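Hey, resending since the last one bounced:
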Amino acid sequence: MAGAFDEMLDAVEGAEGRAVAAEARVRDFVLEAAHELRTPLAGVQASAEALLLGRPEREEQERLLAGVVRESQRAGRLADDLLLMARIDRGVELERRPVDLHDLAEDVAASAAGRPGAAVTVGTAHGPALVEADPDRVTQVLTNLVDNARRAAGPDGRVHLDVGPGGRVVVADDGPGVPRADRERIFERLVRLDEARSRDRGGAGLGLPIARGLARAHGGELRLLDTGTGAAFELTLP
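The structure tokens again:
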């Protein structure tokens, strides 16, 4: 009986410790999210005050208005990402139907081709790869991976999507890769490996956590492969 009582006390103390740690993580996340949101809002406020009080010339007015639109869009994207992250935590609803991952990969590559940046190719050797999945959510995951890969590879780099059987897609780039110590950190919320570049592009460090959350909501997984060169992310769906 004494042994059982000791085990119960240990379990209670462990649960209390985990609860305190979870509370600390939530508090840190809220603080980081608030900081991220303040940045574009400060830009909107500064531009609006300059328009209201400065009476600038037309060219300057257009520049300030463009800044208002850009920063408000950035704040909107962050709010959308935070809401989606909350839905994933609660259990996001998926509209599953038979989809061909190869077709989705081709669509994502075609969309990327219309924007400046690294070239994107899709492997065609494996043929159709049918899965039961939400095509919009899977497209969101692939788009996120491709956009990240194109930024990492640079304008002269290359990004390749390899679609394999069994619901497997690998998005690889020839950029600098991810340091070994950061291979799991990149999937944590509000984590950036390149602070300046991510802030300039409006990234808040939620893209990969959302992508992994959507993969796991399907019963699949998203992980970083150890390839030695560049970075390669593997999406697997059941």
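The longest strand covers residues 158-164.

Sorry for the duplicate.
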